[in-house]
Structures are given as C-alpha cells and as structure tokens.
C-alpha cells in the first residue's frame, strides 16, 4: 500500500534522534513538517534542519489540534489529554516505526520484551551478517528505524519498546518475538500491567512467524491466536534448554545443539537469549554453523552484568541496564558470590511493585544501598539489610570503605535512571568512573 503525505499538515512531537529522523524522512519527500518539543532547550536542536517551524517548552499548542498527521516520539505518552482529544477529532497519530514499516521492502525481524531486547537483536544482526546478509539494526537500540531506509540492506532487525508499539499499526514482520514480560513502565499506562502486556503482544499482529515463550503465553492462547508459531522454553516446546549442575545445553526438538560451556555467556537470561537467537536463525534458514560460531564468541553488551573491575578479592559489576525489578532479580540469580552482595538499588521505580525481591533479600547475604528518587520506598522492602543514601556516589564511597575480599558489588538499580542521569549508559559510565577513583 502506498501512502501519500502531500497536502497534509504534519507535526513531529519531540526532536530527539527519533524526531530528527522523522523530519529528514519528510524533507526527503519534499514535505516540510512542523515540530513541537516540551523542552525549552532540546538536546538535539543542533541536528534539526533549518527553516523548520517549531514551538518549544510545552505540548499544549494549537498545532496539535490543527494537524492531519502527528508522528510522536516514544518518550511522549500517547495518553496525554491533548492527544486523546486529537484522536477523537480524527487526527492520525503514529510512531516512527509505523512510518518505517510503510516504506520497508525487505524482511523485518521484530524483537520486544521487558529484558534482553538489545542482546538478542545484536546477536541476530551478527549471525545474519555471518550468513551473508546486509542486516541493519535499529529502533529502540539507539539507531532510529527510519535511518535504516538510507542504508544498503536486505534485512531489517528492529528492537521495539512498548512506547514505540503504542502507535504502530501496520507492522508485518517476517518474525516477531516477545522475549519475556514483567512489570515495567506502569506509570505510563492508565490501565496498568494488563495494558502494557497487550501493547507488547501487538508485535505479533501481521507477523508471518511468531516465536512464543511458553512461560509468557498460555497454551490455549497460543493455539487460538497463532497459525505459524515456534515455541521456546518448556520441555514440550520446539526449542528447549536442558540444565544440570555442570551444563546448560540448547536443544531443538530434544536434540543437542550447543553446550553453553563453550560460550562466553553466563546466566539463565543469556541462555534464553541464545535460545531465541537460535530459533530466529533457524526460521531464517541461516546455516547452523554460522549461528553457532557467533553464539560461541558473543560477549555481553556494555552495562549488562558486566564485570568491570576486580581488586583485593572484590568484584564490581555494572548492570546499569537494569531498569525494572525483574532485571535485578535476574542479576541476583546470576551471581555466585562467596561473600556479601552489596547491591546498589535506586532511581525512579515507575510505580512498580518491588516486593517480589523481599524473599530474595531475606535469603541472601546482602546489603542494599538505596539511592535516588524512590530510595525510601526501596529501603522499606528489607529495612534490616538496607542503607539509605541520596546518590550513587555516596553509596560507592561507603561501599569502598566496607567491602572485603569475597564481596560482590552489584549496580543493578531496577529503576529508571532519569531522576539523576540522562540515561542508563550515563549511570553505568559514572559507576565505572567512580570505581576507578575509589579502588
């Protein structure tokens, strides 16, 4: 289907990297959009092309209700009253991903989930390239999807957040997968977790192949909803992981494919990521040896359970990408600490329920350093083992004085970083910088 944007009043909401990519998309078509950004001094203002009409400082502007088409950046909630009013008036509101999928002519592999998206997306790109594809990776991973249209590619891999899926309606993926679902971004959705899940599962709409995690989707829902699906997870799935005390083995229909001891990947979350990547690669008919080669040599991405320093018998681990409670739970499951776990927990919890960690804290030899916006709430989960500080820096200085040989210092905040940092990368890099100063 061909989409004609000429003669329409087009408005871009937000001029982050996504917004800039949308502006350039329309300019390339000979159409000049208008722009609104809530910030008085937007971060990427220097990248905005000249001769663009803009309004900064507020979303409440008449341009919204005068538009024919609004392209909304993922950082702006779709549930703002003025945007709800715009929809009632019949104004079309879409994401940059919707623009992208209308233009894309090559197969799309779409990946979402609460955790692990970037790791799996990166694995698949490496495997696809190893198999001879010009595979381009974009979306939530930091490279705007629309910019992929300017690249020489014959396969698109897109990492998608729930924010991007909110306003994406015609995505037709070759393969779609929801890796996992746990409570996150509850502050974004008026109807809470149920709404978040529904938006995540919308990635399957129009997909040719759906990869289903049986721990996420119930059996009856799978049979009634999907015609072409590949299942992962349980012993009855197409793809399984068999574990014992010594080995974790990736299997296809109960046949051994890869012993994870022969890789650099550790922890059940990484085994799951590798299993999904194997399933995607098989569907795409990538040669198995090309897939195995990448999985054997793949290293974890920065800020994801990354051991960044070991000194005086103390391990310092950067898991700043942990922005929800489940990712902290996964990190704790992955540790094999002889001494005390010194957990750095804090930031903006986004109204998530952290009580699921209560039993973990009780059983573990752990000390929890709670910082940031929701530090008081977090410290109340296990008062006896918690220490209240204002900032990450305060916590690091304190830990540097208390930690002894055998201890593990784990930055796995379980919260958004935006109360004190620009993003999780900045938080992780600050952690690394501090460690160099105190050790």
Report what the structure shows.
It is a single chain. The protein has 15 helices and 20 strands. It is α/β, with parallel strands linked by helices. The protein has helices at residues 17-28, 62-66, 81-88, 96-103, 117-130, 162-165, 192-201, 219-225, 268-283, 288-297, 325-334, 358-363, 375-379, 392-402, 424-438; strands at residues 10-13, 34-37, 54-56, 69-72, 92-94, 108-112, 135-139, 155-159, 175-178, 209-213, 229-233, 239-243, 248-252, 255-259, 306-311, 314-318, 341-346, 366-371, 386-388, 408-411. The chain folds into 3 domains: 10-94, 3-Layer(aba) Sandwich (Rossmann fold), CATH 3.40.50; 99-297, 3-Layer(aba) Sandwich (UDP-N-acetylmuramoyl-L-alanine:D-glutamate ligase), CATH 3.40.1190; 306-438, Mur ligase, C-terminal domain (Protein-Tyrosine Phosphatase, Chain A, Alpha-Beta Complex).
**Tally of contiguous helical segments:** 15
Structural class: alpha/beta
The rounded Rg comes to: 23 Å
CATH A-level architecture of the largest domain: 3-Layer(aba) Sandwich
CATH class of the largest domain: Alpha Beta
Low-confidence spans: pLDDT under 50, at least 5 residues? none
Query: Based on the structure, what is the oligomeric state of the protein chains?
Result: single chain
User: What do we call the CATH topology of the largest domain?
Assistant: UDP-N-acetylmuramoyl-L-alanine:D-glutamate ligase
User: Proportion of β residues?
Assistant: 15-25%
Number of strands: 20
Mean pLDDT: 94
Overall tally of structural domains:
3
Helix content: 25-40%
- Main sheet overview: 9 strands, mixed
End-to-end gap? 60 Å
Biggest sheet: strands side by side, in what order?
7-8-6-9-10-11-12-13-14
CATH fourth-tier homologous superfamily of the largest domain: Mur-like, catalytic domain
Rough outline = globular
């Amino acid at each position: 289907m061909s989409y004609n944007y000429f003669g329409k009043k087009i408005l871009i909401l937000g001029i982050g990297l996504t917004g800039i990519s949308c502006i350039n998309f329309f300019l390339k078509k000979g159409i000049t959009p208008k722009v609104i950004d809530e910030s008085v001094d937007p971060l990427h203002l220097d990248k905005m092309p000249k001769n663009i009409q803009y309004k900064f400082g507020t979303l409440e502007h008449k341009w919204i209700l005068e538009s024919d088409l609004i392209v909304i950046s993922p950082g702006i909630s779709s549930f703002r009253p003025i945007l709800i009013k715009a929809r009632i008036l019949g104004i079309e509101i879409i994401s940059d991903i919707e623009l992208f999928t209308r233009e894309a002519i090559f197969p799309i592999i779409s990946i979402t989930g609460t955790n692990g998206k970037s790791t799996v997306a990166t694995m698949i790109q490496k495997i696809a390239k190893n198999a001879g594809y010009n595979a381009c990776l974009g979306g939530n991973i930091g490279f705007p999807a629309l910019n992929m249209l300017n690249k020489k590619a014959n396969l698109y891999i897109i990492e998608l957040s729930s924010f991007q899926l909110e306003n994406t309606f015609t995505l037709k993926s070759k393969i779609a997968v929801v890796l996992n679902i746990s409570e996150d971004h509850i502050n974004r959705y008026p109807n809470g977790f149920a709404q978040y899940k529904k938006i995540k599962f919308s990635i399957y709409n129009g997909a040719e192949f759906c990869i289903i995690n049986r721990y996420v989707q119930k059996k009856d829902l799978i049979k009634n909803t999907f015609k072409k699906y590949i299942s992962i997870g349980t012993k009855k799935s197409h793809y399984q992981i068999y574990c014992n005390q010594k080995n974790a083995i990736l299997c296809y229909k109960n046949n051994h494919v890869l012993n994870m001891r022969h890789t650099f990947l550790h922890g059940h979350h990484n085994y799951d990521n590798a299993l999904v990547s194997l399933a995607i690669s098989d569907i795409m008919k990538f040669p198995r040896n090309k897939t195995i080669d990448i999985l054997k040599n793949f290293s974890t991405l920065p800020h994801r359970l990354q051991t960044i320093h070991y000194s005086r018998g103390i391990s310092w681990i950067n898991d700043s990408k942990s922005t929800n409670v489940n990712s902290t739970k996964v990190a704790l499951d992955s540790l094999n600490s002889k001494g005390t776990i010194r957990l750095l927990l804090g930031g903006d919890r986004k109204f998530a329920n952290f009580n699921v960690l209560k039993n973990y804290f009780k059983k573990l030899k752990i000390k929890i350093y709670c910082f940031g916006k929701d530090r008081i709430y977090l410290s109340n989960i296990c008062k006896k083992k918690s220490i209240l500080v204002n900032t990450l820096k305060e916590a690091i200085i304190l830990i540097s004085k208390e930690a002894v040989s055998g201890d593990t210092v784990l930055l796995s905040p379980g919260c958004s970083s935006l109360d004190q940092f620009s993003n999780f990368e900045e938080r992780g890099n600050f952690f690394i910088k501090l460690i160099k100063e105190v050790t």
